[in-house]
Amino acid sequence: MKLLVVDDSSTMRRIIKNTLGRLGHKDILEAEHGVEAWQILSQNPDVDVLITDWNMPEMNGLELVQKVRAEAKYVDMPIIMVTTEGGKTEVITALKAGVNNYIVKPFTPQVLKEKLEDVLN
């Protein structure tokens, strides 16, 4: 299974990648913002799961989710939003845009594991 982790914080990308690695996932791509993520998706049509931050330069996570959901081939791709934006309005906005699950930073490895299992089942 191939995962794409998108966050402008290299530290957060490393934390998520390390957690995913401990969960047995080895095929992990990463991007610093939505524009880079879109390029990676275009070159890697076999990406199975997208894990993205909301607040990023170039193209934010919400814009990325909307762009991904507009493509027929990605309509069923599981997307998890990982962000500091934990208000009810933000969660509803993300879910309406097509996010399958939502994680508020900071989070534990157990939370990431549970949310990932949830979108894969």
Automatic annotation (TrEMBL):
4-aspartylphosphate sites (modified residues): D53
Response regulatory domain ranges (all copies): 2-120
InterPro entries per record: CheY-like_superfamily, Sig_transdc_resp-reg_receiver, ST_Response_Regulator
Phosphoprotein is among the record's keywords: yes
Gene3D superfamilies: 3.40.50.2300
SMART domains (alphabetical): REC
Any one Pfam family match given in the protein's UniProt record, by short name: Response_reg
Keywords: Phosphoprotein
Protein name per its UniProtKB record: Chemotaxis response regulator CheY
Organism whose genome encodes this protein: Sulfurospirillum tamanense
